Amino acid sequence: MVELRQNEQKVLLTLNKLGGKASIDRIMKLSGLAHASVMRATLKLSKEKLAQLLEQKQTVVTLSSEGKTYARDGLPERRLIKSLIKLGGKAEINRIVKETGLDSQFAPIALGWVRRKNWATIKEKKQQMIALRDPEKGEDERFLGILKAKKAVIIEEHSEEKQIVADVLRRRKLVEVEERILRTLKLTAKGKALVNKGVTIVDEVSQLTPELIITGKWRETKLRKFNVTAPGPAFYPGKAHPLQQIIERAREIFLEMGFTEIRGPLVETAFWNFDALFQPQDHPAREMQDTFYVSDPKTGKLPSEEIVDAVAKTHENGWITGSRGWGYKWNRKEARRLVLRTHTTAETIKYLSKHRNPPIKVFSVDRVYRNEQLTYKNTAEFHQIEGIVVDKGVTLRDLMGTLKTFYSRFGLKKVQFWPCYFPYTEPSAQAMVFVPQLKSWIELCGMGMFRPEVLAPMRIEHPVLAWGGGLERIAMLELGLEDIRVLFSNNLGWIRGVPLRR
Ligand code: PHE
After folding, report:
1. DSSP per residue, 295-330
2. Residue 446: CB within 6 Å of ligand 1?
3. May I ask the CATH architecture of the domain 244-497?
4. Long-range contacts of 419-427, Cβ-Cβ distance < 8 Å, separation of 24 or more
5. Is 403 in the pocket of ligand 1 (CB under 6 A)?
6. What is the pLDDT of residue 274?
7. 392-409 pLDDT tens trace
8. Number of helices (H) and strands (E), helices first, in the chain?
9. CA 145 from centroid of its chain's CA atoms
């Protein structure tokens, strides 16, 4: 005679009520039991051969935000063809793209798909496209249509055809695909026989109360047994984003090393971002392709005339620095332009213009912006770690020591310094770390000692050690990422799976 506990009986009876076969979800709903309780009961029922647990792999497909747009407006290649037909079936590609109102960055992708789907003839030489009719809807479009109507589509294990479509759409980032296991419970003949014989639910008590003890009722009460080794439901408490945790760690390391944090605005004048750092006004880094300029308002305020004048003269002829400068006419208007700061060195030099007495040890860990193409290793918005030390008689050797200490606390031990160039430091170097997994050296930061052309206008009389480098690089190494975009994609599954950093 099997002895069933309260929840096990409940699950058995619920299953019977549901016709002898039901998903765990339905059993949960009807019985009012939690997932863990149903699963625990299921374990026992299976062991006693009263029920059988069936597991089936399922793929759940939902639209991504881009997919939603396409499900509404049509795939870009479809829109291209529609426009082409509107234009008479033969037209120049540029014209078609324009007619479609397609963002120019998507045009090559849409064209690629037109080609792949063989929807039109493309005359490369004349940059022309020809199509006589709107081709029939493809599997992918039909699938998008279904997704739009049903929000989610479940693909069973053996439906290969649908798997393939879903895979194509997933690679185009139009759908999100989640694997899950559908669990169904089925009453066995033995289970059915037991139900027919009549199972009554005996009340069980899961908590021994003072009242039960005082009144002596505990003697007659059936106490529920706990299985303390049974797995509980997955639990996702709130936690800081992995990147944020690494930012905090960088902060802690700096603080432990005796540095103080400084922060500044994301929008800076070109003066602090470039001019004060002795970067000539025709320096390539200043161009639109590399730097984001703010269009409204276009300009900001310059600091005191004394500093501006000194910077101007240093650029033009070297002023009192012993340098010959860059030998051009410095333009104040150019310096007033507002930019999204391209490095935190803008904050460093601004800070130094107001604090000149050693010892100074300050740092920042903050956002910077560069007009970069998004790739697996570049984003237009990222974080820089930056620090400076100002003291009597400090040298490059001190800087190398400081950096070795800093990065080794991040677990990066094999650090080397290679010579390189920055317009504002001399000597300049870059810190490199050897990454065994990649079997290569990667750059951690730029570093150096500020040049007299940077120091003199700020009236700084002592050597300044400075360095700045990307934080995401370190994050990628720490988290074992191959694609930097993961850090910014807010993929909950990934975020939940990353363990807390210590
Ligand atoms: N600002 C430099 C960069 O963004 C790094 C750097 C900082 C170099 C300080 C030298 C000194 O790459």
Report:
1. -SS-B-----HHHHHHHHHHHHH-TTTTS----S--
2. yes
3. 2-Layer Sandwich (3.30)
4. 420/446, 422/446, 422/448, 423/277, 423/278, 423/279, 423/280, 423/283, 424/277, 424/278, 424/279, 424/345, 424/448, 424/450, 424/451, 424/453, 424/454, 425/449, 425/450, 425/451, 425/454, 425/466, 426/451, 427/396
5. no
6. 97
7. 999 999 999 999 999 999
8. 20, 18
9. 29
Per residue in 7-21, pLDDT (tens digit) is 899 999 999 999 999
Tell me, using a 6 A CB cutoff, whether residue 425 lines ligand 1: yes
Residue 389 and residue 361 in contact, taking contact as beta carbons nearer than 8 Å: yes
Q: Is the pLDDT of residue 355 over 90?
A: yes
Who wins on pLDDT, 255 or 233?
255
pLDDT > 70: what percent of the chain? Answer: 98
Q: Class assignment of domain 6-56+178-204?
A: mainly alpha
User: Which band of pLDDT confidence, cut at 50, 70 and 90, is reported for residue 502?
Assistant: low
Residue 155 Cβ < 6 Å to ligand 1 = no
- What span, in angstroms and rounded, lies between the C-alpha atoms of 416 and 404? 9
Q: Is the pLDDT of residue 459 over 70?
A: yes
| pLDDT of residue 288 exceeding 80 | yes
Closest CA to 418 of 389, 446, 451: 446
CB 97 within 8 A of CB 84: no
The Cβ of residue 17 has, within 10 Å, a number of other Cβ atoms equal to 13
CATH of 65-173, one of 2.60.40, 2.40.50, 1.10.8, 1.10.10: 1.10.10
The protein residue whose alpha carbon is closest to atom 4 in ligand 1 is 343
pTM: 0.62
Pocket test for ligand 1, best of 383, 389, 422 (most atoms within 8 A of CB): 422
Report whether pLDDT(90) > 70.
yes
Give residue for tokens 């005679």: 1
How far is ligand 1, taken at its centre, from the CA of residue 372, in Å? 17
* Rounded-to-integer distance, Cα 272 and Cα 277, Å: 7
Do the domains spanning 6-56+178-204 and 244-497 agree at the CATH topology level? no
Q: Is a pLDDT exceeding 70 seen at residue 1?
A: no
Sequence ranges of the domains in the chain: 6-56+178-204, 65-173, 244-497
- List residues bridging with 364 in a β-sheet: 386
Residue 467 phi/psi, 5-degree rounding, is: -150, 155
344 lines ligand 1 (CB under 6 A): no
Q: How far is the CA of 350 from the centre of ligand 1 (A)?
A: 14
**Ligand 1 atom closest to Cα of residue 348:** 9
pLDDT at 57 over 90: no
Quote the CA–CA distance of 436 and 434 in Å, as a whole number. 6
What is the model's pLDDT at position 94? 86
Instruction: Output the CA–CA distances (angstroms, integers) from residue 331 to 68, 275, 309, 337, 341, in the order listed.
Output: 49, 10, 11, 11, 19
- Please determine, for residue 428, whether its predicted confidence score (pLDDT) is greater than 80: yes
